[in-house]
Amino acid sequence: MFLEALGSALLGFALAWVFAHRLADRLPARGIVLTAGPLGGVFGALVTHGALGPGHFLATLVGAVAVAAVLLSLLVRPSSRRLRRSAGLGRGVNGAARPYHL
Question: Which one of 37, 44, 62, 97 has the largest count of C-beta atoms within 10 Å of its C-beta?
């Protein structure tokens, strides 16, 4: 179990490092990202090991990487290049819906 936890933490850190370099402009502070990766990896290993039991080393590491990737993907913010639309589009002056003409 110790090797699974250590391996999953290292894989989570490596994944977080890749995320931090590739998506630096869309992520929060680097320290948060580099902490979330190993924590997600260890948590994923714990859950996978609990579900599968002992003797599934590679499957546990795959589960750890999957949970770390999901946790890191939750930190990604939308791109600033994306166009934003106003919530009032399609409304008249008084807030009443305007008819659309084709």
Answer: 37
d(CA 48, CA 13): 18
CB 8 within 8 A of CB 23: no
In the DSSP assignment, the letter for residue 24 is G
Distances in Å between the alpha carbon of 46 and those of 17, 31, 38, 55, 70? 22, 23, 12, 13, 15
Q: How many residues does the chain have?
A: 102
pTM above 0.85, yes or no: no
**CA-CA distance, 50 to 46, in Å (whole number)?**
6
**For residue 10, how many other CB atoms are within 10 A of its CB?**
15
What percent helix, strand, coil does the chain show, rounded to 5?
Answer: 65, 0, 35
Rg (CA), the chain: 21
- Taken in order 59, 65, 71, 74, is the CA torsion positive or negative? negative
